[in-house]
Amino acid sequence: MSPQSAFENSGPAVAHLIMIIYNGNLETLKTNRETYALPQTK
After folding, report:
1. What's the pLDDT score for residue 21?
2. Does 20 fall in a domain?
3. Distance (Å, rounded) from C-alpha 8 to C-alpha 25?
């Protein structure tokens, strides 16, 4: 098995992991923005 074929075989799993990290970071950013905005809106 060449490194390229190994990378292609792991592609879907890597893409899935990236999406999990990306979505998790978006949720964290949204939560932080809401948390930081609370004192400013009062």
Report:
1. 80
2. yes
3. 26
**Can you spell out the DSSP letters for 27-40?**
HHHHHHHHHHHHHH
Judge whether 9 lies within some domain: yes
* CA distance from start to end of the chain: 61
Read off the pLDDT of residues 1-42 as tens digits, 9 standing for 90 and up. 566 676 566 778 888 888 878 777 777 777 777 776 666 555
The count of C-alpha atoms lying within 13 angstroms of the C-alpha of 19, restricted to the half-sphere facing its C-beta, is: 6
Q: Does residue 21 sit in helix, strand or coil?
A: helix
